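I had to read the description of the data format several times before I understood it. In essence, backbone conformation is discretised, so a fold becomes a row of integers matching the chain in length. I therefore recommend that a typical entry be quoted early in the introduction. For illustration, here is how one protein appears when written out as sequence plus structure tokens.

***
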Amino acid sequence: MTATVKPRSEGDSETFIDRLQEDLSEDLGATEALLHTRAASPVAVIPNLSGYIVSAGGKRLRPLVTLAAARAVGETSHGTHALAAAVEFIHTATLLHDDVVDESDLRRGKKAAKNLWGNSASILVGDFLFARAFTLMVETGNLEILDILSQAASIIAEGEVRQLAAAGRRDLPTEEYLAIIEAKTAALFEASARAGALSAGGAEHAEALAAYGRNLGLAFQIVDDALDYGGTTSVIGKSVGDDFREGKVTLPVIIARRRGDAEDIAFWDRVLDVDQQRESDLAHAIHLIRSTGAADATAAEARAYAELAKAALNTLPQNTWTRALRQLADFCLNRVN
């Protein structure tokens, strides 16, 4: 398949992602077919619930990373498509589990699956999708790829537990926050890019693409955390303010609390205990994050990781797909603008 990704300006990131999906349409079509067929089960609740969240789609960023990474260093194959489907299944499974743990009401702009099928079904179907992901990995016949993605699944679970343990901790160090998001988000981006390279015979570029994916994932999550205090539900796919209402200590909160006066610190210490939150608290939290410069500082941190991601691509063949990967980093940043 011959495809070109046309350079886009920074102002039309949505157009860029649509174009990238179009240029990878053959690969994405094969991936989507696998997502549909491998979510099938004679137990009706499994395809109904999994189909509900998988069909909600999102941007398919992780499969796009796998497919574009493979294209950047070689050619895609059924193995690449299987890996792209596997990483989406892993991601979807974590979303199902997260919505139960976080008691979220929205996911990708729709009612969370647990609100329709219940907590138990959401957790068990998430487990089913994890199992399907491992079946797809085995089909590649590559033990190195199986090791990469299985390690990523373990790290993601550790990151979620680490985040749960940190909930409401008022003095969370920035280093601990970064360790949490590196595990729960960046690890799958890293594995997606590395596995994509290996599936296309690009072992010599796997480490560079892993660094790209890791830094892309960090930038993506930092932007996501910033959007909780100023984004829209359509962009972040969950209710604005969810992190605040759940008492999550994210980078905007860490910076705003650090820069605040005694009154501000007392405010953060109160509202991070979810039982003490008041209806007007979210609006004041957003005000503090903006007035202390925490919003700008968070955006700058995300930008730094996006630049690291793009720099990691310098040793790769410079073609339309490496350019697309660079633009994908810009797309993740532009969601906050």
About this structure: The CA atoms of residues 208 and 313 lie 6 Å apart. The longest strand covers residues 106-107. The radius of gyration is 20 Å. The beta strands are 106-107, 110-111.
